[in-house]
Amino acid sequence: NMNRGETLTHHGKGSWRTFLSRVWRRLRAALRMPGPDTGAILRRIEIMERNVILPLKVAGIAMLVHSFYLSPWFGDVLGALDIAVETTQYLLWIYIATNVVMALLLLAMWRLPSGLIQWLAFSSTLLDGILLSALTLVSGGYDSILYWLFVGLIMRAAISVPRATSQLMLSLTLIACYVMAGLIDIAITDL
Fold first, then answer.
1. Burial class (CB in 10 A: 0-12, 13-18, 19+), 189
2. Which value, in Å, is the radius of gyration of the alpha carbons in the chain?
3. Is the dihedral of CA 43, 174, 68, 75 positive or negative?
4. What is the DSSP annotation of 33-51?
5. Are 55 and 163 in contact (CB under 8 A)?
6. 42-64 residue pLDDT tens
7. Each residue of 108-141: pLDDT tens digit?
8. In angstroms, rounded to a whole number, what is the distance separating the alpha carbons of residues 165 and 135?
9. How far apart are CA 46 and CA 52, in angstroms?
10. How buried is 35 (Cβ within 10 angstroms: 0-12 exposed, 13-18 middle, 19+ buried)?
11. Distance separating alpha carbons of residues 119 and 140, to the nearest angstrom
């Protein structure tokens, strides 16, 4: 009648490897965090994207259209910044059209495949990051108050895109968008 230590010593190094391998597998299984089920992911997307973000986008788009076309806030700009503002105005119309399609899909989300809805949440956040980069560029680059919206976008990605690899890729892309907008602003200022 031997205890565990004597048994492992008695059988040699192979038994230690087997024992450590078994302990390692049990430890990994105990620490494994399962991802949320599809229903939970869709509820997150419904709450965040459809119930919170969609109304905010409608208000934000209305403010941007007013700012760009009814009371221009950028004044009489000449040169390279004028090109950036004009490009942002064109980007705004593409953004509006794309968001109309995305909004219709979100309103019918429970009738669509879950993979499409998850892709929609990812794409929507990425599209918002691209527009926000353009707006950051025309509103002061790194000095823009819009910086805080990038932080909000990253937090939104954490809620709406729960898969770790997609979330990480999206967050890094949003950070790159902000950095690029600031660098372009510096380059324009140096002209």
1. exposed
2. 25
3. positive
4. -PPPPHHHHHHHHIIIIII
5. no
6. 999 999 999 999 999 999 999 98
7. 999 999 999 999 999 999 999 999 988 888 887 7
8. 27
9. 9
10. exposed
11. 32
**Reported pTM:** 0.73
pLDDT of residue 83 exceeding 80? no
Distance of CA 26 to the CA centre of its chain: 34
What is the rounded distance in angstroms from the CA atom of residue 138 to the CA atom of residue 83?
A: 10
Angle between helices 80-107 and 54-65 (to 10 degrees): 150
Query: Is the confidence at residue 84, as pLDDT, over 80?
Result: no
CA–CA dist 170, 173 (Å, integer): 5
The single-letter code of the amino acid at 172 is: L
Q: Which two tokens stand for residue 183?
A: 């660098």
- 134 sits in which H/E element: helix 114-138
